[in-house]
Amino acid sequence: MANRGSQVVAAILLVIPFVVYLWVPSYNMVDPKLDGLPFFYWYQTIWLVFSGILFGLAAWLINRGE
Amino acid sequence: MLNNDGIALFVVLFIVFVFLGFYGARFRRGDLRGLNEWGLGGQRMGAWLLWVLVGADLYTAYTFVAIPSGVYGAGALYFYAVPYVALTFAIAVVTMPRLWVVARNRGYITAVDFVKDRFNSRNLALAIALTGVVAELPYIALQIVGMQSVLTVMLLGVANVKTVTEVALIVAFVILAVFTFTSGLRGAALGAIMKDVLIFGSVIAVIVVVLVNWGGFTTAFASAPKSYADLPTISIPKFWSLFFGSALALYLYPHAINGCLSASDKKSLRTSQALLPIYGVGLALLALFGVLVYGIPAALSILKTSGNGALTVPAIIITVLPGWAAGIALLAVFIGGLVPAAIMAIAAANLLTRNVVKEVYPKITPHGETQAAKWISAAVKFVALAFVFTVSTTYAVQLQLLGGVLIAQTLPAVFLGLYTRWLDGKALTVGWGVGIISGIYLVLDANKFGILTSSLFNTPFGFLYIAILALGLNLLVAVVGTALVRATRFHREGIIPEEDLRRVRTGSSPSAVPNPLAPVKAVSQLEAVPE
């Protein structure tokens, strides 16, 4: 059952960036700016790193269960 | 024009790249007479190398040139490339390790090998193979377009720049063809390491210099059109459907699958794909060059004078960096085109050899199969080169745009096939046909049957990426068709035991097999199984 549980967690980790990016109105704005860069751009760029971390955790969980 | 220091460094580093390409043959040495050795690097790539290789393979020179060009010309919409490259790797984490396992167990070299056995359908396999080749060829041609933009800026002001550029590209491609022929995927893997180091170094150097010396984003956004600061509401459906559809489609391209199948093991593959969104930070920064160029008058004037947005990245590089550094950065984008072009040609050749030639001549030996793939991979590069020189780059761009819509139609057979055997081969084939025809028709209609510049169709929900619309029809037909076929008992079961998808059978790892040709032989035995 622990295996099943970690698979569910892995699936959630994989899905989070989809929710983040598909919810376009949540980040389609100019402010707050980061050194002149509108929110729209820097938020999506930062989420590349977060996505990598979440997917990495998911991969680790799946690998551990196999 | 680039100064002499810059040109000298460009040439010296290009020679280093070529050396790595040839040296690749000796890298983790194997018997290059086997197709899995030549075309998949002996399936010995660990997590770190896979990250580098697949990263260099998927983040192509064309992306580096076209996305900033799009941002320069149209603003925030083209930033769809960022969520696209974030999300596509979640799909890779879910699909690619499973494909790798079944490929390892059954000696598959391409996704089509899998589809053929999974659904026990040669027609479906042929349809998927041809889609892969048709989508891949313009992609190779576009790497040439990316490399062309580097040379154009580098040689700005030189007399007869067009001829010089074409000669340089032909020389580069001949060299590429020769080392791909001798080293296969291994040569590309070493080139990929060099590409990644240089690209990241260059992007960071340019960003730092622009932020410090050119007033950074504040100046750039003040000079850029007002609408570039965020996405106009009308563009929101375009934005999400483009990144979602592209993310679904990327790992259906033969070069993406080819890179993944070169993995040494399932866990390394999964980890490496999971961490690839981080590579996308480089692409995001490059995309922002499309805005930054508005704050750099000398670079902007190059774009305005030439009327060519594709010059955005090279123009910024040559304007803000000292000559020697610009030489390195331009070379980075240049080999950024050669690495994916090599892998794409290998992948297209693997498909054509294994899934077309071998279908016609089933008695081809493993050695003969590899020879055929080597020659086809060379031929494919020159077809692409000839296409760009003789037809026009505009056609290559249009075909690439169409290619994205077409390749998405292979999703039901390849991705869903990994998880369910319920679907029927005949229904999938008809679904594929409906997807392809409706996709092409919608693209033509969206462009009023003229030059193809848009892949977005006006629906009641706004403009949506046609790849998704056609895929919806395709899936509908495949599901309804399967239900009908199953009801009438014309259904044919696939021949892959479920166990082969789950875990690697003991003894099927090539590193455990003394003779590297063994996996290829194993396939010919399996194919003797009556259908």
Structure overview:
Chain A has helices at 2-22, 39-65. By secondary structure, chain A is an all-alpha fold. Chain A has one domain (2-65). Chain B is globular, with a radius of gyration of 23 Å. In chain B, helix 3 (47-58) runs antiparallel to helix 12, helix 7 (122-154) packs across helix 18 (366-391) and helix 16 runs antiparallel to helix 17. Residues 510-531 of chain B have low confidence and may be disordered. The chains are: A mainly alpha (66), B mainly alpha (531). Chains A and B meet through helix 1 and helix 2 of A and helix 5, helix 10, helix 11, helix 13 and helix 14 of B.
Strand content of chain B: under 5%
How much of the sequence lies in strands of chain A comes to under 5%
- Cα distance spanning the termini of chain B: 62 Å
Largest sheet of chain A: none
Structural class of chain A: mainly alpha
Outline type of chain A: elongated
Q: Residue ranges of chain A: pLDDT <50 for 5 or more in a row?
A: none
- Average pLDDT confidence of chain B is 85
State the CATH architecture of chain B. Up-down Bundle
Tally of individual domains of chain A? 1
Of all protein chain pairs, which has the greatest interface, and how many residues does each chain bring to it? A-B, 34 and 42 residues
CATH topology of chain B: Sodium/glucose cotransporter
Provide the descriptors you would attach to this structure in a database record.
heterodimer, A: 66 residues, elongated, B: mainly alpha, Sodium/glucose cotransporter, two-stranded antiparallel ribbon, disordered C terminus
Topology:
The complex is a heterodimer of chains A (66) and B (531).
Chain A: H1 2-22, H2 39-65
Helix pairs in contact in A: 1-2
Chain B: H1 4-23, H2 35-40, H3 47-58, H4 61-74, H5 81-106, H6 111-118, H7 122-154, H8 161-183, H9 185-213, H10 216-223, H11 236-250, H12 254-261, H13 266-274, H14 280-292, H15 297-306, H16 312-320, H17 323-360, H18 366-391, H19 393-408, H20 411-419, H21 425-446, E1 456-459, E2 462-465, H22 466-488, H23 499-502, H24 518-526
Antiparallel strand pairs in B: 1-2
Helix pairs in contact in B: 1-8, 1-9, 1-17, 3-9, 3-12, 3-13, 4-7, 4-14, 5-11, 5-13, 5-14, 6-7, 6-20, 7-8, 7-16, 7-17, 7-18, 7-19, 7-21, 8-9, 8-18, 9-14, 9-17, 11-19, 12-17, 15-16, 16-17, 17-18, 19-22, 21-22
